[in-house]
Amino acid sequence: MEKIAKPRGTMDVMAPDVFAWNYIEKTVRETAERFGFTEIRTPMFEEIGLFKRGVGETTDVVQKEMYTFTDKDGTVYALRPEGTASVVRAIIENGKAADTLPLKYFYLINCFRYEKPEAGRSREFVQFGCEMFGAPGAGADFTVISLADSVIRKLGLSNVRLHINSIGCPNCRPKYREALVNYLRANRAELCDTCLDRMETNPLRVLDCKNDSCKKVAEGAPRTVDHLCDECRAHLDELKAYLDACGIAYVIDPHIVRGLDYYTRTVFEFIAEGIGSQSTVCGGGRYDGLMEELGGPKMAGIGFGMGITRLILAMKQNGVEPPALAVPELYIAAMGPQAAVRAAQIVKELRERGINADSDIMGRSLKAQMKYADKIAARFTLILGDSEIESGRANIKEMATSEQTEVALDEIGAFLDARRG
Fold this sequence. Notes:
This protein is α+β, with helices and mostly antiparallel strands. The protein folds into 2 domains: about 15-170 and about 230-315, Bira Bifunctional Protein, Domain 2 (BirA Bifunctional Protein, domain 2), CATH 3.30.930.10; about 330-420, Anticodon-binding domain (Rossmann fold), CATH 3.40.50.800. Helix content is about 40%, strand content about 20%. The protein has helices at about 15-35, 50-55, 60-65, 85-95, 140-155, 175-185, 195-200, 210-220, 230-245, 290-295, 310-315, 335-350, 365-375, 385-390, 410-420, and strands spanning about 40, 45, 70, 75-80, 105-110, 125-135, 160-165, 250, 265-270, 280-285, 300-305, 330-335, 355-360, 380-385, 395-400, 405-410. Helix 1 (about 15-35) runs antiparallel to helix 5. The radius of gyration is 28 Å and the shape is elongated. The two termini are about 55 Å apart. The relative contact order is 0.12.
């Protein structure tokens, strides 16, 4: 019978790779909670209109990359391509906009985009994201950037650097847009077909194109930071003051524009060296008009998304080894049916005590059980047979030193607790 393969652009995550995933997920959860963010879980699919309005009709995400389907009642849904729009929808629908500000949420979610799979880019990907609402000042920008920086440092990523930019607000962006479109029209012969369309509908996206000729055009394009209004410039200067005071290194990068329509003012990326073309491990920015755009109150917002697979690539580049799955403190090699039952009873008691323990359930010979204990790197082993059950005592052997200690069967937990310090 023909085998069924996983869909293109998806992945199976198993040991030992899953150790890195678990380590990263644990790190980001603990970091977000320490910054006062609480977890939010939203549906994997939403009405397509949410992303058209929230992400933007002219973005590649909406035009080319969303997975959509029509429900039996005729409603068109889309698998979520990102997390922010769903969080905003959830806040509005559940009346959370009236809660004490700022609102601070984080999530670990699967997202879906129809893209060409390559290293660091897949069609199903896991994203860690944080969103903060109700805080318009640069202190909020610094907080979410600091959170991302903290995660990156905790993961041991020394090859990642923060790039920041400001793309202005509705007051100053029209003047910049006019200057940019005039420049692009003058250089239209050098633009790819996609950017010729973007030039009129979403010119900022031209600056983010990976086509070599478009990148050359972008290098000479007008800079957003040279067209900011006084308020946007003051906001950027205040953010820089926070970063400088707290020792977070950064570069002003006029090519950081982000690809979604909802961004305004601050945009940023953490970029890793040496992991290939998909080098942005974290990207985000401010979206002060998004809540209102989706039918909620006027409320400032800022957040970021961080791709787990790209973090793993960066960790490998840095030689960072995540902790492996905890090995058993004790493996009990049982000889005979009665011993197997007693071993299972001891293991159950140890596990309930918080001790990682295991015993044979395969009917292996004693020799095979000891080989298995060595393979799983058990710290201690115990051979349990009829004589040990009758006496109520057995020898526990420390595998690294071969030291043996006689222990009462009902005191094994206390012995292991003491040896764990």
